[in-house]
Amino acid sequence: MVRLTANARGLSTARLLPQKQQKSSLRIRSDTIEAFPRCSESNFSELRANKRFAYFDRTRYVSVLDSIHARAILFLRPRRFGKSLTLSMLEHFHGVQHRAQYGELFKVTPGQYLILKFNFAEVRRTRDLNEADQGLAKNIIGNLEEFYGDYYSYLGGSLGQMISENINQGDAIHSLRNLVGIVDHTLYEVKNRGDSKNPLANVKGIYLLADEYDSFSNEYMHPYNSKDWEGSNASSLVRDFWATVK
């Protein structure tokens, strides 16, 4: 058995003598684990690949989340609780592009989705509320382009073609709707042909992951005067985004 000790690197392990051991559900091999990672580590694949680190296993929640028959699930937890790492875990579990890593990352058979990710903490901030929507729109479009970068070969076109035909730099919401339409049409065609060898044959649809979903709104919403925010283009874009997602 081992105990956890705080140090400059985070939490490390130290061996306990037999007379000090007590019952515990946590078992750590102190000869292979040097430390728990800092809270800033949020890439599931990199964390699992680093054998020096221990990972508090949350993979059992994949099946729990899957059993919740809801179109959207909201994680409300404090900062540094591990929300981003949990989203990364879901991405690597459900993402068809991570299929080659399944054996290394999981001990069960994952589902199959196309992963559409957003991180609203990465939106470029500005003091001018009237210009704030531009940073949000750029963030949305950038994530749509990243989606095409991951899946253009699955969707039957070149990356340049996908972006030029379906991304409207002046209309992030229209571009999002285009993306959903392309995926729906492609999956329908694959299933209609009965092409069981197609890598999309068992794909269920899009799995959307939104990290720091309220980060952008909280940057500009004033607790005592919300009129400026409510009447802004940024507020309209936020509402349109979530309305489209729903």
Automatic annotation (TrEMBL):
The taxonomy runs:
Eukaryota, Fungi, Dikarya, Ascomycota, Pezizomycotina
Protein name in the entry: AAA-ATPase-like domain-containing protein
Which ranges carry the AAA-ATPase-like domain? 42-246
Q: Which PANTHER family match?
A: AAA-ATPASE-LIKE DOMAIN-CONTAINING PROTEIN, CONSERVED PROTEIN, WITH A WEAK D-GALACTARATE DEHYDRATASE/ALTRONATE HYDROLASE DOMAIN
Give the residues annotated as coiled coil.
none
Q: Which Pfam families match?
A: AAA-ATPase_like
Source superkingdom: Eukaryota
